[in-house]
Amino acid sequence: MIEQGNAMSMFGKCTEEVKTRVSYATKEALQRLAHDAQMSESEYLRTILMIHVHGEEDVHRLHQERINKVVNRGK
Question: Is the pTM of this model over 0.85?
Answer without folding.
Answer: no
